[in-house]
Specification:
heterodimer, A: 373 residues, mainly beta, four-stranded antiparallel beta sheet, globular, B: 133 residues, mainly alpha, two-stranded antiparallel ribbon, 6 helices
Amino acid sequence: MKNSIVSLYLIVLALNFSCAQQSENQVDTPSGVPFTEVLFIDGIAIPWGMAFLPDGSMLVTEKSGDLLLVKDGKKTKISNVPAVYDRGQGGLLDIELHPDYSNNGWLYISYASSDGDEKGGNTAIMRAKLKDNSLVNNQLLYKASPNTTKGQHFGSRIQFDNDGYLYFSIGERGERDINPQDITRDGGKIYRLHDDGRVPVDNPFVDATGAKTAIYSYGHRNPQGLAKNPLTGELWDNEHGPRGGDEINIIKKGANYGWPVITYGINYSGTPITDKTAMEGMEQPIHYWVPSIAPSGMAFITSDAYKGYKGSLLVGSLAFQYLERLQLEGDTIIVREKLLPDIGRVRNVKQGPDGLIYVAVEGKGIYKLVPKV
Amino acid sequence: MKTFLLIYFGAVIGLFAFFFQEPERSASIERGREIYGDFCVSCHLEKGEGIINTFPPLANSDYLLQNREESIRGVKYGRQGIMEVNGVKYNNVMTALGLEDQEVADVMNFILNSWGNTSKTIVTVEEVAAVQK
């Protein structure tokens, strides 16, 4: 009897340590917030990307393929937008202005495209200019291959850095054992190009045999958030992991982020993917979420508009339908807060040129966080 | 004699239909399993259990099993708004998946015949094609 109690105790103890998953990390619900949310643009089914034009208007992509120009609350559909492969998570995705947009007029769009010989689609990046409510000078800058009919993991966030390089993410397209660890294949990567699509000569894999030379970092799963840290100039991403493996990473040149060799997550079924959470030569996330929040969109708050929020990171949650504020001390997250509880699936978040925060919510539209005075 | 013949031919036709539907049914379920893994599993999870209050369950879902046409419509065109499943209210968005009619039929056959769900009649591509937005 005594022995069986001891062994039972040992079994229970062993169970506690046998799982790669850590105990749930905590998100706080604040008692008061320094803003009121206002539905700024309504009636957009899946607002995916947002860009703020110098005249105060806004460009919004709708996943099924519409690019909308919103001015004074009025929506105008832009013509000559590339045809999109609207399937699963694919469609018309992100939009971003060139850092020198006011002089050169270039805007950058990511989308799922069926260009190519195989059936299906994959992520593409193009640039164009806006003239008389139409896209003109359309130029395809990158198209991942091969196409596949799989519906998941297109990635697609676009971000420029302080030196004017163009970065974008492409997810592993449902082929975790084939794509992310192989630099000769597209998918599961973050890419870097010049603004005109040329591959920079100092990209990390330009001399590697057979490599896709646009690759900047690899071993990603599905990054749907990409933002520039205003203090350091570094790029940060958030990516959808498997169950319990959503991550925030700081993107470094040539680095391997480990998917699917290392992960804090497990299969959706609860079975392990790997027992490894760390390995020599692979980067660690600065944060991972248990349970997964399904992070999409990412923005740093640089404005003084909201008391106590400056320097915080914002991340949308698709699964749990709120906006998460992460308070930082350097690269360490010290507080997590749940804003806009039950607002809907938060697809994107950005700080506008007016210093205010705009939040894209599926099925609703775009909210503006108006500071309380 | 007349009754016998009626029963006899009735049984033959019934078995004929059954045996010929069976391979088609299991092939469709197998194709549906793959679609499920690509398009559905990240929200509805591996055993169709969903996440309570966020993503409705498919396993033993009263909504799914009692609203066949509405469920096909949801998979085909996406859906949004309040729905009640097994006594719990859900208010979320499922985006249009962009599946072909055959793929909608396949994934419906998979979810209607998995995790304890059973459905006597197979969902056909014609049935999916007839469902309008």
